[in-house]
Amino acid sequence: xxxxxxxxxxxxxxxxxxxxxxxxxxxxxxxxxxxxxxxxxxxxxxxxxxxxxxxxxxxxxxxxxxxxxxxxxxxxxxxxxxxxxxxxxxxxxxxxxxxxxxxxxxxxxxxxxxxxxxxxxxxxxxxxxxxxxxxxxxxxxxxxxxxxxxxxxxxxxxxxxxxxxxxxxxxxxxxxxxxxxxxxxxxxxxxxxxxxxxxxxxxxxxxxxxxxxxxxxxxxxxxxxxxxxxxxxxxxxxxxxxxxxxxxxxxxxxxxxxxxxxxxxxxxxxxxxxxxxxxxxxxxxxxxxxxxxxxxxxxxxxxxxxxxxxxxxxxxxxxx
Amino acid sequence: xxxxxxxxxxxxxxxxxxxxxxxxxxxxxxxxxxxxxxxxxxxxxxxxxxxxxxxxxxxxxxxxxxxxxxxxxxxxxxxxxxxxxxxxxxxxxxxxxxxxxxxxxxxxxxxxxxxxxxxxxxxxxxxxxxxxxxxxxxxxxxxxxxxxxxxxxxxxxxxxxxxxxxxxxxxxxxxxxxxxxxxxxxxxxxxxxxxxxxxxxxxxxxxxxxxxxxxxxxxxxxxxxxxxxxxxxxxxxxxxxxxxxxxxxxxxxxxxxxxxxxxxxxxxxxxxxxxxxxxxxxxxxxxxxxxxxxxxxxxxxxxxxxxxxxxxxxxxxxxxxxxxxxxxxxxxxxxxxxxxxxxxxxxxxxxxxxxxxxxxxxxxxxxxxxxxxxxxxxxxxxxxxxxxxxxxxxxxxxxxxxxxxxxxxxxxxxxxxxxxxxxxxxxxxxxxxxxxxxxxxxxxxxxxxxxxxxxxxxxxxxxxxxxxxxxxxxxxxxxxxxxxxxxxxxxxxxxxxxxxxxxxxxxxxxxxxxxxxxxxxxxxxxxxxxxxxxxxxxxxxxxxxxxxxxxxxxxxxxxxxxxxxxxxxxxxxxxxxxxxxx
Amino acid sequence: xxxxxxxxxxxxxxxxxxxxxxxxxxxxxxxxxxxxxxxxxxxxxxxxxxxxxxxxxxxxxxxxxxxxxxxxxxxxxxxxxxxxxxxxxxxxxxxxxxxxxxxxxxxxxxxxxxxxxxxxxxxxxxxxxxxxxxxxxxxxxxxxxxxxxxxxxxxxxxxxxxxxxxxxxxxxxxxxxxxxxxxxxxxxxxxxxxxxxxxxxxxxxxxxxxxxxxxxxxxxxxxxxxxxxxxxxxxxxxxxxxxxxxxxxxxxxxxxxxxxxxxxxxxxxxxxxxxxxxxxxxxxxxxxxxxxxxxxxxxxxxxxxxxxxxxxxxxxxxxxxxxxxxxxxxxxxxxxxxxxxxx
Lengths: 320, 582, 343
Description:
The complex is a heterotrimer.
Chain A: H1 2-26, H2 45-54, H3 61-73, E1 79-80, E2 85-86, H4 87-122, H5 127-141, H6 144-158, H7 176-215, H8 217-224, H9 229-240, H10 242-254, H11 256-259, H12 261-266, H13 272-282, H14 285-313, H15 315-318
Antiparallel strand pairs in A: 1-2
Chain B: H1 7-27, E1 36-37, E2 48-53, H2 68-77, E3 82-85, E4 90-93, E5 96-101, E6 107-112, H3 126-137, E7 150-151, E8 154-155, E9 157-162, E10 165-169, H4 189-197, E11 220-226, E12 230-235, E13 241-242, E14 254-259, H5 263-271, E15 277-279, H6 283-291, H7 293-296, E16 298-305, E17 309-314, H8 325-334, H9 337-346, H10 349-357, E18 361-363, H11 387-396, E19 400-401, E20 407-408, E21 416-422, H12 426-440, E22 445-451, H13 453-463, E23 468-473, H14 484-487, H15 506-520, H16 524-541, E24 544-557, E25 560-561, E26 580-581
Parallel strand pairs in B: 1-13, 2-14, 21-22, 21-23
Antiparallel strand pairs in B: 3-4, 5-6, 6-10, 7-8, 9-10, 11-12, 12-14, 15-24, 16-24, 17-23, 17-24, 18-24, 19-20, 25-26
Helix pairs in contact in B: 3-4, 9-11, 10-12, 15-16
Chain C: H1 5-22, H2 24-27, E1 48-50, E2 56-67, E3 75-96, E4 100-109, H3 127-163, H4 165-180, H5 183-193, H6 200-214, H7 217-230, H8 234-241, H9 246-282, H10 294-299, H11 304-309, H12 315-339
Antiparallel strand pairs in C: 1-2, 2-3, 3-4
Helix pairs in contact in C: 1-12, 3-4, 3-6, 3-7, 3-9, 4-7, 5-6, 7-9, 8-9, 9-12
């Protein structure tokens, strides 16, 4: 219990540190949001300076940080210069879309990876394992970028799947069930692609962990005791192998926001990834900080969950 | 199997129909209204159009909008007093049905149409015009369009002379006065005045506002906004235009703007039938789309050169106060016109047109493109590419070649410099790579430095820490006054040496004089002569080495009729009120 | 893995590939910046042994390519214009090991017609030559970043797992902090702040160093997990009981248990960082023109017209797949060997 409260306090401190450091980091790159306007011959330099003053971009860093903190506590999460609105509503919609994609893909990946990884470990050395090895290595060797580009090409050439976006233009006229089907249809390719990119690492780690567990002395003892193989694998080896797997699961949760960024950009899924890239490129600093904070939060929560689960499941750690 | 409705149902339907008719009739303007009659072939009402936008609009407040997506949507929602017809590039009456100019050219008296109504049904008149201009000119609001309304150092003043008459007073005669009004939206006083008075105007009409909080005089009104995905507009039943047959415009009942962020995704969406109009794509995508045009039922149009000109320029700033000794040393080369002419002669413009734009571009030697029919000077010389000529020029300027072929200046230093480009613009980076290779034939060692856009602008306009840069400009309007800030030596976008207190060179002083003069000359022929001279100076002194102007490429689905793309923004949507679905 | 011969075949394959890259100047027929402006996006050259009249030649030859006037962008081979391939020819100069100026190339074609084994790009530059030269930069980048990441990660992860307590808390929280920050912004800032006269490849390697240093958090976390349970093993406690110092225990007893994870990570990280370099190029942070890297070669694929019309631009990516596969296979074999060493 004390451990959990301690971690919780650490997490809050960490979030504050992340916010401070990312704020400071964002001032490093030269140029700010209004620089793009300076190349417009119809807007004068004075006008751009006025805009800069109006949005407080000339104030010193601590002042701006303090104003931003206050805005966070009020629930608005800062102000987006590009969208001329508070950041919070902007993020809500996008974060929901990203979580939809990531959660679907992560669930899919784990659901596929666990049985395949365990089976490969059990089949170790035989042709089943080797086929599995080859397949996962090939998928791993295929770069994520290529995978998404090929999926895009597939969508365009065959027309079986929509080539991007989250819903068709006429979606508002459909009923709820039809709307859900439309979104699921658009979700297929990105989720599939993302799950495929997550799969090889998961399978390989699961397999490694299971093999190490299967090799340990107590498993040999269990075999000697005549315990049937299925029970040996699931009831004895799997819990022992859970140490790195739990870290991996926590990591999956933690990186849910960032892992999908590439898929979102290439397959035009309206999530946080494209928003982050656009905001970085246009120097919309408060949006960037807000997204970073959100990712950091998820990261911290994921790691916390992983550590707690580790604590709860591995007696070897509890004894310390 | 459709069965005819029962009697009670039929009576109910008839009653509804009568109601609908009477409301429709009520929506018809009363007699005494003066609608504008358009010349387009009449079309049939109904149907919806899908257009792709590169990003979400930042705001739906016309006073504050500056970015292209916002302006595109706002043009469909609002109307202006005098409009520039994108096809003819000349002004025509819009909300103002006529106007008179005083003999001294300082006063413009506009007559508004009678019976105008905003999209929420409320009447529109001179009060709204006065209110709108007050907001645009308010210094605290910081409208990007405010500077356009400052003539002769003073903002224009607006007076209401009657319920349908407004007078504008300029501080001095202004050649392009009529063109000022294009894009200045007339705002509804009944919705915005209170917000303006309480000081909350900057937050008004942003994307989180509800559709019923908006009203405008444009052909459409806001129906729905789904963040991150699309914005849908519906027909404005109070629109003030009709066709020759007397049918009220617009024909379309709905326009949906889908946000598709990358050009490639837009091309894919258009090709798959997910969008009806496409613009702003490159020449290579044109070739890909062309192959499938018959099968997928769309047509592509190459409209020829637009107003965009891409150019290379050198750092001619006065950087004595900045700590940039390397660049200061190299400025000795850049400021010699023979060096710039040699660079211009060595660049293979034909290869740029062929390799970067697939032949769909025009080589340029001066800043006005052939697409700007009213202002292009046809007598500007177009010297063919000549590396020998370039070498002769360099030799006369004191440069020499070493044994390994590299170029050295008169002090024996290697000629080596970098060209800055924006990493987000693939075509300009390609041009820079070709130029790098061309200049290598002169023995110059050129690097291409590709930075993100904001860092590049910072270097160009704030820190002046650059040597050469590849840029492009698109004027908002064909008229030269739109580019005053580029050519005036005191201008902010006088890219090679902005914000001069007095002209640094005699030819810049000459350009200043000519530009100031054309600003106040009202006769077109005389203005043309003045601006021709400006073009000749630019082609001779080469403050910017103009290279190419890409063609305007658009595409439209076959079901869209009355499609008449133009080379001024917005290329495909300028006549959206005349488009209809077959 | 089965037969002990397999790892050797893979290792030899890898060695040959690296040799090709290392001596790119020799194996590549052209300089990476040479533009053949009349032949943009030319398809890969077809080597013929039998000419139009049916005569067989032992020496392969290529036909000259001309643009098809009817079809823009398509090329037809002129069967009257044959250019035989010659070996050990003199060509464009290059620096061997950065010191000697050499002109010898493995193969080349007589006459002005170029031979594009992997096709040409938008400026008519030979993709095969650019692939070999690009490999130098990309492999260096991948290796550098992976090594930095792993070294830092192992160090910090082992210390934090072994000592626990506040050291563990500081490092792990610090790792999370590190991981969460918007490093893309930092990369843009670093790139933008570089003075103009620094060579492009130096700026690029600096960016890669930054990426490598940033990436320590993930391997550290995994190593820490293993160390946490490894240090409770009996023999570790025994060693401590014998008075072994912490460093000794870490080096000889705890870390060896993590070798499996370390190796897995290394083999996964190198291709990952090569792909990170590709992603950087997609975002505009790649090495500047005309220097090639695998990232800049592939960055053109993000444009739809290249993706759908010019299939040979995929070739660098396709060649990478067996390379990555070989890396993984080699590492797996090594891992199996290490496994069999008794602890």
